């Protein structure tokens, strides 16, 4: 059995694994106390297989386990075969139709809930202001902050109406970068006034609307903190926690992305992120790194670097999130919802939108 400190440290991590069934490595991580799991295309078979997989994952521990997935629409979709197809959000954004965005989110959430998935890493709240951005682009609703805010909130409301947690990403904004944080460390020189007027608008509005969670960006905003990306910066994260007043779950983007591991190292990144007020850290690909990350929190608390009350706040937010959104292992899997007549009708309407058929590279598979 893990110690109390080990179990609490492990709760702060959302991990991935390989295969179509829970791996021994995942079982060991849940034994240590991990209670959040992210699925990738490498884990996905037919819908019935996904439903059985989520049930098997949730049976690894006596407490709730939250299962998450990137299911934005367009090319960033882990669940494809047997699921209703949703185009990129740029196509939805061009309509300006919040009711359509809500209906799209409701469809997305219902199909995730049908196979036992609890968290959609969507909507993208980045404002698409750089045509040379290699990682956001068509994933964004558009270049107008108010449009992104309005449709992002609508999509999130639809997702959450189906009993699935939404996650707004990537705070405070990845839309104007010209580098992909999967592969490098992007930097933006925008002054706070510009960030307030453009990048922060959708995140502020989503927080006010009660979005369940937010994900951070591995982007340096040099006018705010010249040395650290937002994920690791207490200064930048204080904008979300204090200026905006968001008290929901804050999730890091994957700490195995090269923006982090090439520049800061995993253990130091975990401690900086925890100090900055991250609650849940994604470590998606390498079991050895997942264990090192848990150990880093344990050592940080034991050494006195991480205050006990900071760990308490993070664990409390994780526990509230799990209690609200993580369905039990025996919850019904309503597979008949997938590609229902209603969903196929909306699929046809979305497919007819200008730009809906555009195919772009999926940047989120860079490290998969």
Q: How would you summarize the topology of this molecule?
A:
Blueprint: H1 4-10, E1 13-15, H2 24-32, E2 36-39, H3 47-58, E3 66-69, E4 71-73, E5 76-77, H4 89-95, H5 98-114, E6 119-120, H6 145-161, E7 165-171, E8 187-188, H7 192-197, H8 200-208, E9 213-216, E10 220-221, H9 234-243, E11 249-251, H10 258-261, H11 266-276, E12 281-283, H12 287-303, H13 308-325, H14 341-351
Parallel strand pairs: 1-2, 1-12, 2-3, 3-6, 6-7, 7-9, 8-10, 9-11
Antiparallel strand pairs: 4-5
Explain how this protein is built.
It is a single chain. The protein is built from 14 helices and 12 strands. It is 42% helix and 11% strand. The longest helix has 18 residues, at 308-325. The chain starts with a helix and ends in a 17-residue tail after the last helix. The protein has a single domain (11-355), classed as TIM Barrel, CATH 3.20.20. It is of the alpha/beta class and 368 residues long. Strand 6 (119-120), helix 6 (145-161) and strand 7 (165-171) form a beta-alpha-beta unit.
